[in-house]
């Protein structure tokens, strides 16, 4: 079982590789690169908002964002060869714990409507779809989970 830990700035290159590998299959479906592939993560690492799953190497990442009084699971990425092993579920649980520790009563996220696996994955973890909207040129599906 992978252990979970906070990311350090030296993990940045590996984190970016995991995000690119996890989201690359969706680029053709969406018609452009998914937003997480081009995001800047150093700030989130320095702020202590990045959780990693690690066995012999880092295999997954959860990136949290504070937006006003809300806490969002901004990015969840697991290496394709590790997906389905429970790594993502453990990272989401750790993100929920982080949100609780930081005073949140709910955790929010959005995913792309074309990422159909996510549309069933997050509800299995207790998230409820709240709405859909076009944002930054992407069709987003928004979810919230009460903590």
UniProtKB/TrEMBL annotation:
Sorted alphabetically, the keyword list is: Acyltransferase, Transferase
Segments forming a coiled coil: none
The residue ranges of the N-acetyltransferase domain are 2-147
What InterPro entries is this protein classified in? Acyl_CoA_acyltransferase (IPR016181), Bact_Acetyltransf (IPR050832), GNAT_dom (IPR000182)
A Pfam match is Acetyltransf_1
Asked if the record carries the keyword tRNA processing, the reply is no
Q: What is this protein called?
A: N-acetylglutamate synthase, GNAT family
């Amino acid at each position: 079982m992978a252990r979970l830990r906070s990311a350090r700035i030296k993990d940045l290159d590996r984190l970016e590789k995991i995000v690119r590998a996890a989201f690359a299959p969706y680029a053709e479906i969406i018609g452009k690169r998914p937003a997480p592939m081009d995001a800047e993560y150093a700030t989130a690492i320095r702020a202590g908002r990045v959780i990693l799953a690690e066995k012999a190497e880092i295999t997954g990442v959860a990136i949290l964002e504070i937006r006003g009084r809300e806490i969002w699971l901004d990015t969840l990425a697991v290496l394709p060869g590790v997906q389905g092993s429970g790594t993502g579920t453990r990272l989401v649980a750790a993100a929920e714990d982080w949100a609780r520790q930081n005073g949140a009563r709910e955790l929010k996220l959005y995913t792309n409507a074309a990422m159909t696996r996510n549309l069933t994955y997050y509800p299995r973890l207790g998230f409820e779809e709240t709405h859909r909207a076009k944002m930054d040129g992407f069709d987003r599906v928004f979810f919230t989970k009460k903590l």
